[in-house]
Amino acid sequence: MLVVDDEVGVRRALERGLAAEGMEVVTAADGPTALRVALTGAFDVVLLDIMLPGLSGYRVLQRMRADGVRTPVLMVSAKDGEIDQADGLDLGADGYLVKPFSFVVLVAQVRALLRRGGGARRRLTLGKLVVDRGLREVRWDGQDVSLSPREYAVLDVLASRAGSVVTKDELLRAVWGDEQAATRNAVEVYVGYLRRKLEAVGAGEVVRTIRGHGYIASTSDLDSALGNK
Questions:
Q1: pLDDT means per 10 residues in the chain (229 residues)?
Q2: What does each C-alpha distance from 100 to 78, 85, 92, 103, 180 come to in angstroms?
Q3: Closest C-alpha to 49, from 59, 64, 36, 39
Q4: pTM of the entire structure?
């Protein structure tokens, strides 16, 4: 889940509260950062404040929809006027909350959007890399990248959590499931296969190893937006 708010206290409180509800949370403090991160399509829900530095929540939402990102968006604002709510909904928002709001109501609305938006993340974008989850195809700068089903599954997991580290154990569970014969070594082998195929088309920097932690799918722009080193 992406939480966008320029007030640090609000971001931290929401991050703690939503994490306690079992959600993985990424935060952004301004409009341009929110847009760069949201355009990856890697989130199940975006909680988007309207009044943001650099680019308003309205414009962030407008760009998301114009670029084909269908992630459910719950807009948040101190403004409770009907026109403000109508503007957000007309631009493609899926809900509207007025500050101050009940955290219980927020969680209920987020869960409702999660139930309704199960097919929203059909395309994941990391710079020139596009993962089409509907067709199970991968392209780099318009060029098809041929992957085996297992290599595709590894990339899909990493791209769906773009900008976040995924551990070997998490990849093992997500890609191999209950296959008892699979080990962490299998994860290393298939990540190696995947990286070689990405390198062959010029996308070698998209998937990286974070020593002692796992792997990350990201770009320099996303690293900068999220403060990753």
A1: 94 94 92 93 92 94 91 86 75 88 92 74 87 90 93 94 91 80 86 95 93 92 78
A2: 7, 15, 23, 9, 49
A3: 59
A4: 0.77
Amino acid identity for residue 95 in this structure: G
For 206, counting Cβ atoms within 10 Å of its Cβ (0-12 exposed, 13-18 middle, 19+ buried), the class is buried
Beta-carbon count within 10 A of 106 CB: 19
Q: How far apart are the first and last CA of the chain?
A: 21
> Taking the CB of residue 122, how many other CB atoms lie within 10 A of it?
13
Say how many C-beta atoms besides its own lie within 10 A of residue 222's C-beta: 22
> What gap in Å lies between CA 11 and CA 56, rounded to an integer?
17
The answer to whether 30 and 6 are in contact (CB under 8 A) is yes
| 2-4: strand order across its sheet | 26-28, 2-4, 46-49, 73-77, 95-98
- CA nearest neighbour of 27 among 116, 41, 43: 43
